[in-house]
Amino acid sequence: MAIKINNRNIDAPKFQELITKHGCIIKTRLGIHEVDNCAKEGLIILQLCGKDEDIQALGEEINSLDTVKAKWMKLDF
């Protein structure tokens, strides 16, 4: 799942609550943002494991936040 946060100052605390709530399906989390100016935007990549419905529920909850957009895909190798 790739997540773009457009205003970290506003939605980061709510986003963190959701990540904690769904922590059992998150295997890896990678956060990327500019540190020189402490940018408002950020990109987060999650490696998820679990049932499709649990992953979809997480994505829908994240997308309910005002300045956050999540997209997910399933890679079967």
TrEMBL record:
Top-rank taxon, per record: Bacteria
Protein name, entry field: Uncharacterized protein
Family matches, as Gene3D superfamilies: ACT-like. Chain A, domain 2
